[in-house]
Request: fold
Amino acid sequence: MMSAKRDYYEILGVSQQADGGELKKAFRSLARKYHPDKSDAEDAEERFKEIQEAYAILSDSEKRQVYDRYGHQGLSGGGGGGFQGFHMNFEDIFSGDLNDIFSSFFGGGQRRRNSRGSDVLVRHNIPFSAIVEGTSEELELNLLDDCQTCDGTGALDPTKNKHCTVCGGRGSVTVRQQVGPFMVNQSTQHCPECSGRGSIIDKPCRNCRGEGRETRNQKIRFDIPVGAESGTRLRMRGHGEPAPRGGGDSGDLIIQLEVQAHPWFERDGADLIMSLPVGFPALALGARISLAHIDGKELLIDIPKGSSAGQTIEIRGRGLAHRRGQRGSVVVLLKLHMPKKFDKKTKKALEELGHTLSIGAEDVEQSVRDEAEYRRGNG
Ligand SMILES: [Zn+2]
Ligand SMILES: [Zn+2]
Reply:
């Protein structure tokens, strides 16, 4: 699964001298191509993540310098697969301020617009059988939640909290910043003294040391949708991290499903594709083959006589369920099973068969010669 990490400049298709404008242009055009909502490419999600990561690093001058000098190894995580990507609306790629979106995602501290808790992404492997009819699953996760000892207040005894004199209990302060000779930028920020609480904790809660949050083992129940594909994300509202110190809403828990491969089926939407190696006699004379199927019933594959390798047989209604209820097809690709060695008896029988069917080596040579002569005569 792990492949060598590609060069960020190569991913965006820009030179090492590319400036911010060129980076943005390259990112937008690639993001439009590989946005998972728009692209049908099988690796769209991976590509989109890769593009996001490359842009995130190269558009940040500090990180770019580190990368230029030390490569992937220089960046946090040692160049491993730490970057998970993040959800970006298709419209944001074009209308929003890209740098704003990226910096708010990569912990651009004060720029955070509200104090909603963070989303948490977990990957969850499910067996192929789970998507056939859909199932209900339960996951045990260690997640941040409000501290139960102090009820999320962070205080040992909230009644002893003192009024914050810096913000007057409002939790926010107005900051005026001179940005030019005649310009003052005015903005509202969390009060630095009380971290937006409006009050000062007398003694911090011993359990969470004033954080108001603690990690707890939680059981999360969710349903696997019928026909879910790898990369499907289930959003559990409010099950992510709580906002710091009782601020805003909790974030969401996002469960990304990874569907294990089936031993012989490949998926194409609701269709299931398999290749079936059969011997020459089965192709020539026809055959009926029976397999145990994903729906628990028998799957009968009827090979018509006179089939050739490379032909497909479609069995309708035995694939995966569509969202609308119908089922896709099983598509069987016929392959010729050719043993590496034959015993003497079989070899003799094949030679005889070759004579009767005119498929021996010498006959092929003659027919190739005939064909060439015929063409010369008509050329
Ligand atoms: Zn506590
Ligand atoms: Zn305050």
